């Protein structure tokens, strides 16, 4: 079984769309573990309402809001997962109906997958949030127009899906295209490196650190592009005051391995 580890913080309108999109999956063999970094009651209400309308198993993990501590709550989610394969997703992302199926098709022993995203602009984001419920077919009906007007930054990866193959494999660690909002690995592999580095607090690069340490542990990175694209809702940039320090720490680990 697959466990979707869904990170969220105080954006219940986006989380509602994300959960509704997970309810439309063609592959139903998954659970959702919500890794909540201190959201208020309105997020809990969205989760409870969704839980009452679905047969999907949902586990809501919550920790007190003490700043950006995503690494800590994700490690709790890893431990709580019943699935042997973990797909990491953020609550500001909407998934396509074949999202779980595509990740399952790419899952391979000894590999991790770094997925891809399509960026939505502010106008389109606000329009989707105003919908009473998520409707993928309705979204797709205006897709080309949204690409031409700048509503989305990619079109063809939503239309063309490619299968597995060695062309997806990275030969070495590269920082590019690591997105914590869409990646996957085996639970045993995540546990073997003790999950995320909990000393990395504040926004930025905890996902790159996680991927680097998995690759250092002889796990091969595979691209999930042209298969797993999520729709990333527009939001203002988070506080990045810790990003430079987190990046420095990742670079130190990379340098230490090279020596």
From TrEMBL:
Transmembrane segments: none
Domain Glycosyltransferase 2-like span(s) in chain numbering: 3-127
Signal peptide from the UniProt entry: none
Stretches assigned to coiled coil: none
Keyword annotations of the record: Transferase
GO MF terms, alphabetically ordered: transferase activity
Occurrences of domain Galactosyltransferase C-terminal (ranges): 174-219
Annotated SUPFAM superfamilies: Nucleotide-diphospho-sugar transferases
Protein name as it appears in the record: Glycosyl transferase
């Amino acid at each position: 079984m697959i466990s979707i580890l869904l990170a969220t913080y105080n954006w219940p309108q986006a989380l509602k769309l994300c959960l509704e999109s997970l309810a439309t999956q063609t592959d139903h063999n998954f659970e959702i573990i919500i890794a909540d970094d201190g959201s208020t009651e309105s997020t809990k209400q969205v989760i409870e309402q969704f839980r009452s309308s679905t047969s999907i198993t949902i586990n809501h993990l919550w920790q007190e809001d003490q700043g950006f501590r995503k690494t800590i709550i994700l490690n709790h989610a890893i431990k709580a997962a019943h699935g042997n394969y973990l797909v990491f997703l953020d609550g500001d992302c909407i998934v396509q109906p074949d999202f779980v199926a595509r990740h399952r098709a790419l899952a391979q022993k000894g590999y991790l997958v770094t997925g891809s995203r399509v960026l939505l602009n502010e106008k389109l984001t606000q329009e989707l949030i105003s919908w009473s419920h998520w409707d993928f077919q309705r979204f797709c009906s205006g897709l080309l127009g949204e690409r031409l007007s700048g509503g989305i930054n990619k079109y063809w990866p939503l239309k063309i899906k490619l299968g597995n193959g060695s062309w997806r494999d990275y030969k070495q660690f590269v920082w590019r295209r690591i997105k914590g909002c869409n990646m996957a690995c085996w639970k045993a592999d995540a546990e073997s490196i003790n999950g995320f580095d909990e000393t990395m607090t504040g926004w930025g690069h905890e996902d790159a650190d996680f991927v680097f340490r998995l690759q250092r542990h002889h796990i091969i990175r595979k691209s999930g592009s042209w298969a797993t694209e999520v729709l990333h809702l527009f939001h203002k940039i988070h506080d990045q005051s810790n990003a430079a320090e987190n990046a420095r720490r990742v670079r130190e680990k990379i340098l230490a391995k090279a020596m």
